[in-house]
Amino acid sequence: MLYYSTTNRQNTATLEQAVIKGLAADGGLYVPQRLPRLPKAFLRNMSAMTLPELGHAIASFALQGDVPTDVLHEIVFESMDFDIPLVKTAGGNYLLELFHGPTMAFKDVGTRFMSRLLRYYSTRHPEWTTLNVLVPTSGDTGSAVANSFLDMPGVKVYVLYPRGAVGLIQKAQFASLGRNVTAIEVNGSFDDCKILVERAFLDDELNAAMRLTSATSINYARLIPQMIYYFWAYVQLANSGVDTSNLVFAVPCSNLGNLTSGLMAQRMGLPVKRFISVENQNNIFYNYVKTGKFTPKPTQYSIAPALDAGCPNNFGRVMELLGSHENICRHIHAYSYNDDQIIETIQQTYREEGYLLDPHTAVAYRAMKEDVQPGETCVTLATAHPAKLKPLMERIIEYPIAMPRQLSEFLKSERHVLPMKNGFTSFKRLLLSNN
Ligand SMILES: *Cc1c(COP(=O)(O)O)cnc(C)c1O
Fold first, then answer.
1. What is the pLDDT of residues 290-322, one digit of tens each?
2. Which atom of ligand 1 is nearest to the CA of 358?
3. For the CA of 258, the nearest atom of ligand 1
4. Burial of 417 (0-12, 13-18, 19+ CB in 10 A)
5. Which of 32, 57, 183, 243 has its CA 20 to 30 A from that of 302?
6. DSSP-assigned beta bridge partners for residue 162
7. Could you give the C-alpha distances from 236 to 43, 47, 62, 231, 427, in angstroms and in order?
8. Residue 368 burial by CB count (10 A; 0-12/13-18/19+): exposed, middle or buried?
9. By alpha-carbon position, which residue is closest to atom 2 of ligand 1?
10. Alpha-carbon distance 135 to 138, whole Å?
């Protein structure tokens, strides 16, 4: 199957080319020419499958034989070797906990899948030189990508993060690794980090000297496995006898990758009535839904740092899947909340329902409560473990919270950080001298 660029449909690529490049050369995002619809019988029989079995079946349908089935089996089973439980709060609301992977945020699923797919492609190309993965991060992407590619032969990872703006634990998750991971502390903002990476992809001299790729959600490989857990939520509801005929998902959004995956799952046949997209004060998509105008803005920092995006990368894919502003409004209800509202929601939910929401999940949970109608079943995607922002969470609920072992391990090791000026010349020099 071919993938076309959202900028120009004539520019097509194979799955391998799309995954290796990330962004199309014309600046567009790759979209599959066709997403197959799952047979009705498949939807009925899903309930007997385990999570990785379901994942393998759905990925096989989606990729249409472009990756051999035994290879895909290994990739999926390796990237989904942790639980994704659906929990019910004391208030009777459902949360799908996507944060039980190695770095305790939902991005583990997508980045592990992507890293293993790239590993497969590199075994087919022994002539390849080192692949350099460049990631700007406000916290979660850097740690998920770094941990997914850690010690992978033939790969180097460069994580760029804004000085002073990434949490202690999040930073430890990528800056304590060393080996093939370089953490670059940029004396600038998150937007500056993004711009440095974008310029690198377009720089002829750099591209002639080294192979570069992106591991943010512009890479289609991240979206495939993210579809799977929407189906998994459906399976878990159905298996516990809950009515799934009016199913709604509330999704905390930043670059809209998670939401795009949900829309793809719906396109493949998952019966979803509506999505609720929820942003923090960086409410670019919310404004688009309300006004029909897409206006990126500089990123503002918030207490939900993984939602801080002033220009949502996957907007082009959402447009491509739904076609028009009118249709987007029909499928998606949009919300946006500020820091005070996030704090209020965390405190209230902890007090009244005994569930500790992290700040990212909190925005979606609040919107779910505002938007859900009688007779609907709504699942909120819980995207990060609250302990990832432990000092902040403890200030909010005024109570100490336990640190999972997975996270405390990262804090034990020394940090390896390269400080860098906010300038493309510095970045280029650093990359070339490391090459
Ligand atoms: C990345 C992230 C999001 C946003 O996901 P997008 O796919 O960028 O919209 C939400 N919550 C957490 C915890 C994240 O790390």
1. 999 999 999 899 999 999 989 999 999 999 999
2. 13
3. 7
4. middle
5. 183
6. 186
7. 13, 8, 21, 9, 47
8. buried
9. 306
10. 10
Q: pLDDT tens, 329-387?
A: 999 999 999 999 999 999 999 999 999 999 999 999 999 999 999 999 999 999 999 99
The pLDDT tens digits of the residues spanning 43-73 come to 999 999 999 999 999 999 999 999 999 999 9
Phi, psi of 31 (to 5 degrees): -135, 140
d(CA 119, CA 130): 12
Question: Checking DSSP bridges between strand 94-97 and strand 86-88, what pairing results, if any?
Answer: antiparallel
Pocket test for ligand 1, best of 141, 147, 255, 299 (most atoms within 8 A of CB): 255
Q: Is the whole-model pTM more than 0.70?
A: yes
CA of 223 to the centre of ligand 1 (A): 12
Question: Is 217 close to ligand 1, i.e. is its CB under 6 Å away?
Answer: yes
Residue 66 contacts residue 120 (beta carbons within 8 Å): no
Calculate how far, in angstroms, residue 104's C-alpha sits from the geometric centre of ligand 1.
12
Alpha-helix runs per DSSP H in 323-389:
325-331, 339-353, 359-371
Question: Does the C-beta of 253 come closer than 6 Å to ligand 1?
Answer: yes
Distance (Å, whole) CA 289 – CA 406: 39
